[in-house]
Structure to design on (521 residues):
């Protein structure tokens, strides 16, 4: 492609074949991100490589800050965001864990940063393949967390993420995750929107702090006392009030997320379930498979096979992981009999994270559904359709017998292939 | 948005103006104080607004951007960053009895 073609390429709506990573880069470009600071890590690296190319070629007017680690990248993003700029970055697994220390700073200072996360398992042992264990480690730092199921969703969710994060009712950093390799390195046709339509949907950021004005030097996030500060010149909240505000804003951001999802759907004609979770053949279903990301994509293909057997089964694919859409899930699962949860992650010492979060969300329902969880696909292990079918059969059998087990179950282990085991 | 903002929507980032002596007289934390040798100091020697690395790098903002730069020992914690950053090595950390 020649340069003149490329520079005019964002002007009109068209279809392009892109990897998951590059659809994230393209979204950054069209979102007119002002500052990007990142450090390379597999499988995320192509996102920021492409973004730096856009900046080099003048297609994206942004500042790319090169740093020596993900911790510095996140710190640079926080500082850049505090100057009133739109800021984005991308990372994976250990990169996200190195950023971890800065993440509560971003949410506590209410900086609308967007991180794209190509999910990857956490070592040891060393692995670059996909599972959601990095994604779930940051569930308690006060970020909004999305999980995508295909490349189009990555592209679309990025614009929604910026708009949600920058909404004056929200001001909370947001993470857009997608499965490493399965999406990050897989090419799919993407409907790219015209730049002017994106600009209309996503106006420039109106930030609540702006440190770029050096005449009004301010300190951000200084020591905050346990109690409210009362002084002749005014009062200031204590730490407790700041964190109350963050939690309440997160809880109430669900309405904004629904609103922005609907606005996007109306403007561009693409929607993702109700914006919080997606459903597949659930109308008449009494049993539901609950999963997110690549696992859901795999389950979709299995639902039809199971329905052919006469099972009334459907899929709920979680899109919004934080804030956890408790009320919508309770309403949805009120009359369901069985839920089978597939976790591509694990809360070590307990069970799959999605499984226990769902159990907690449904606490106190009149007729609590039977819930059974399986741990699948850690470290990039293939989740085969016949595994899912066997799990569903096993779970439904246990449901009929009324057996409730609290031990985790792994499916797809290959212990029989190990020659040193007798 | 025409609706009224809720209380939690008005509490955002903690942004405060720096105030001198917010954490007390921190000068007594130190056991060494930076002393500027005006024979070597670039602005003092040249009489020009130049260098000011000590002013720029001081994490406590106790160095003035003047000719010569002056250090407020009441709040200087004695970290020694100015000494480290001074290009002509005009700053030495010495034991000073403030009493």
């Amino acid at each position: 492609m020649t340069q003149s073609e490329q520079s005019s390429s964002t002007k009109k709506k068209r279809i392009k074949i892109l990897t998951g990573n590059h659809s994230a880069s393209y979204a950054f470009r069209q979102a007119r991100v002002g500052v990007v600071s990142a450090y390379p890590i597999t499988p995320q690296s192509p996102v920021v490589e492409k973004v730096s190319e856009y900046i080099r070629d003048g297609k994206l007017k942004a500042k790319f800050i090169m740093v020596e680690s993900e911790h510095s990248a996140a710190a640079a993003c926080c500082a850049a965001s505090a100057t009133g700029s739109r800021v984005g970055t991308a990372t994976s697994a250990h990169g996200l864990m190195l950023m971890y220390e800065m993440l509560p700073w971003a949410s506590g200072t209410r900086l609308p940063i967007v991180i794209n996360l190509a999910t990857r398992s956490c070592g040891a042992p060393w692995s670059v393949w996909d599972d959601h264990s990095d994604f779930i480690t940051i569930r308690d730092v006060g970020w909004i967390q999305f999980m995508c199921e295909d490349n189009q969703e990555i592209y679309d969710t990025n614009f929604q993420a910026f708009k949600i994060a920058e909404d004056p009712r929200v001001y909370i950093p947001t993470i857009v995750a997608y499965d490493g390799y399965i999406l990050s390195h897989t090419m799919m046709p993407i409907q790219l929107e015209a730049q002017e339509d994106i600009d209309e949907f996503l106006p420039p950021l109106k930030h609540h702090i702006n440190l770029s004005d050096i005449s009004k030097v301010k300190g951000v996030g200084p020591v905050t006392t346990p109690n409210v500060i009362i002084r002749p010149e005014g009062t200031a909240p204590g730490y407790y009030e700041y964190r109350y505000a963050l939690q309440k804003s997160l809880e109430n951001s669900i309405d904004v997320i629904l609103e922005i999802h609907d606005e996007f759907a109306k403007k561009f004609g693409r929607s993702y379930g109700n914006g919080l979770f997606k459903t597949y053949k659930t109308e008449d279903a009494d049993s539901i498979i609950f999963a997110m990301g690549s696992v859901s994509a795999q389950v979709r293909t299995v639902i039809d096979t199971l329905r052919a057997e006469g099972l009334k089964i459907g899929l709920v694919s979680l899109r919004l992981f934080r804030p956890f859409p408790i009320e919508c899930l309770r309403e949805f699962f009120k009359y369901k009999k069985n839920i089978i949860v597939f976790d591509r992650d694990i809360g070590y010492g307990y069970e799959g994270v999605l499984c226990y979060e769902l159990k907690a969300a449904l606490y106190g329902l009149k007729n609590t559904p039977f819930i059974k969880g399986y741990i699948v696909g850690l470290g990039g292990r293939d989740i085969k359709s016949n595994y899912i079918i066997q799990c569903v059969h096993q779970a439904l059998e246990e449901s009929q017998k009324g057996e409730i087990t609290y031990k985790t179950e792994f499916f797809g282990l290959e212990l029989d292939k190990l020659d040193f085991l007798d | 948005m025409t609706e009224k903002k809720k209380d939690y929507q008005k509490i955002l980032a903690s942004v405060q103006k720096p105030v001198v002596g917010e954490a007390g007289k921190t000068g007594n934390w130190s056991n060494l104080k930076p002393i500027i040798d005006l024979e070597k100091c670039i602005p003092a020697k040249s009489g020009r607004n130049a260098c000011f690395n000590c002013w720029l790098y001081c994490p406590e903002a106790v160095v003035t951007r003047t000719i010569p730069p002056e250090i407020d020992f009441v709040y200087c914690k004695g970290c020694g960053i100015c000494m480290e950053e001074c290009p002509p090595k005009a700053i030495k950390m010495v034991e000073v009895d403030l009493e």
The longest helix of chain B spans residues 42-46. The domain at 22-94 of chain B is CATH 3.30.70.20 (Alpha-Beta Plaits). Residues 43 and 49 of chain B are 6 Å apart (CA to CA).
